[in-house]
Design goal:
It comes from Kaistia hirudinis. Keywords: Hydrolase. Belongs to the AB hydrolase superfamily. AB hydrolase 2 family. Pfam families: Abhydrolase_2. The structure is a single chain. With 218 residues, this protein is α/β, with parallel strands linked by helices. It has a single domain, classed as Rossmann fold (3-Layer(aba) Sandwich), CATH 3.40.50. Helix 2 crosses helix 3. The two termini are 31 Å apart.
């Protein structure tokens, strides 16, 4: 079972929203929970959780990965994301049940490989979640999405134009794949940014979440 650091709602009341933060390769939940600390004042009724990925990282066993990246090609991404998806799905179900919430109250925020996992799991959930935000990532197995999509949460993709790990072209390809499958997608390209999340990207994500939680559609 996945686990990781959590933040209770700042309001001190039972959670009305759940934001799940998915880290990238060679990181852990403590890295991404800092996004939760930054967002929490804007979402005082939201609980935040950043689960550690299930496998030790190939190059640092003290850190984690969702799946191996020995060969960087879309076929491997798809196989890895598919294998890890049931664990993440079960975690989401358990966290929602813990707070007495539904998918309509849920947002996924991923970074890098965490974005791949968010895009793998989110569209295949039985009911649409409130929002899905992907930073510096891409979709795994784009050719499979149209045939496997079950729900279509609104999506925001944010990517640095100078990303040396996952090129900016991956964001445009991912957005095109999602739109072709009927998703509403917003994109933000950060011109001087590499493989990271900057304040402007975080602000864009916060505004996207505010609209999603307020109206049910971003």
């Amino acid at each position: 079972m996945l686990d990781g650091p959590r933040l209770a709602p700042l309001s001190g009341q039972p959670a009305r929203q759940l934001v799940v933060l998915l880290h990238g390769v060679g990181a852990d939940g403590h890295d991404l929970i800092e996004l939760g600390r930054a967002l929490a004042p804007l979402f005082p009724d939201a609980a935040f959780v950043a689960p550690n990925a299930p496998d030790p990282c190939d190059w640092d066993p003290a850190r984690y990965q969702w799946f191996r990246l020995a060969v960087r090609d879309p076929h491997e991404y798809r196989l890895g994301a598919e294998a890890a998806a049931p664990l993440l799905d079960a975690f989401l179900d358990a966290e929602l049940a813990r707070h007495g919430l539904t998918d309509a109250d849920l947002a996924l925020i991923g970074f890098s490989q965490g974005t791949m996992m968010a895009l793998q799991v989110g569209p295949r959930r039985k009911r649409p979640m409130a929002a899905l935000i992907g930073y510096s990532g891409r979709i795994a197995g784009p050719d499979r999405l149209a045939a496997e999509v079950v729900s279509r949460p609104p999506v925001l993709l944010v990517h640095g134009a100078l990303d040396e790990v996952i090129p900016i072209a991956a964001m445009h390809e991912t957005a095109a794949t999602l739109r072709a499958a009927g998703f509403g997608v917003a994109t933000l390209e950060r011109p001087a940014l590499s493989h990271a999340i900057d304040p402007e990207g975080l602000t864009a994500g916060a505004r996207f979440l505010q609209r999603a939680f307020a109206t049910g559609a971003a």
